[in-house]
Amino acid sequence: MIATTHLRALPHLALLAVLGCAVFARTASADPICSDCEVRMGIGGTYHFWGGTDGVVLPLTVAWSQNRYEVGIFRMASPQTLHGANPSSQQLAAPYWGVSASRRWRLLERGPVRAFFGFGLAYRTESDLLSATHWDFASQLGVHVRLPGNGASVEFAVRHWSNAGVKLPNHGQDFATLTFLLDPQFFRTARLDRARDLKISRESDPYAESAVATR
């Protein structure tokens, strides 16, 4: 059953991959609109009271201003089912889309490792047992680790969306995400290196370009 839910998530993961590649292509071919924006993609899962609910999460986030602000799009790509001690189970939520905007605060930083807390608002396209409202408060607690070379990094965050009991039911949407960043500068540098190699090749063989032009 878990394998089936992962297969169902593949089309949505492909969509997020296309969006991510489009952003990277834009930053690689021209000056970026946001010079310090970090675009992250990854995978995640849902839980409830530290028990798994078999939900697959596909995150696409953008952070800027030295990771102080984050906007994310999240696809809850599979049904969330709470399994009890008896054979019966309860479906908490059907697949839906969610969007969040958060302010982040740095809690601790040691070398390449940074711990942070975030708080903001989230919007869910569906209301269910997890939350009777579409608008919720969004909190997160995570760790950001910079990897050596090319500005890559990995980030793990535990997230919670709920309406703070404004309207019941309000069990809250609990999920964790693992996202990765590959600095767009890496693509830009690789592109410049290829252009430089082509220029050197033409300069070392001046007849190559004229031969191509006469064909």
Description:
- By secondary structure, the chain is α+β, with helices and mostly antiparallel strands.
- The chain folds into 2 domains: 2-182, Porin, CATH 2.40.160.20; 184-215.
- 27% of the residues lie in helices and 47% in strands.
- It has 3 helices and 10 strands; from the N terminus they run αββββββββββαα.
- It has helices at 2-29, 184-204, 206-214; strands at residues 38-48, 51-64, 69-76, 80-83, 89-93, 96-110, 113-124, 135-146, 153-162, 173-181.
- It has an 8-stranded antiparallel beta barrel.
- A hairpin with a 4-residue loop joins β2 (51-64) and β3 (69-76).
- The protein is elongated, with a radius of gyration of 22 Å.
- It starts with a helix and ends with a helix.
- Residues 1-6 and 23-31 have low confidence and may be disordered.
Protein traits:
215 residues, alpha+beta, Porin, eight-stranded antiparallel beta barrel, 3 helices, 10 strands, disordered N terminus
In short:
The chain is built from three helices and ten strands.
The coarse silhouette is elongated
**Overall helicity:** 25-40%
Number of strands: 10
What's the total helix number?
3
Tell me the layout of helices and strands.
Blueprint: H1 2-29, E1 38-48, E2 51-64, E3 69-76, E4 80-83, E5 89-93, E6 96-110, E7 113-124, E8 135-146, E9 153-162, E10 173-181, H2 184-204, H3 206-214
Antiparallel strand pairs: 1-2, 1-10, 2-3, 3-6, 4-5, 6-7, 7-8, 8-9, 9-10
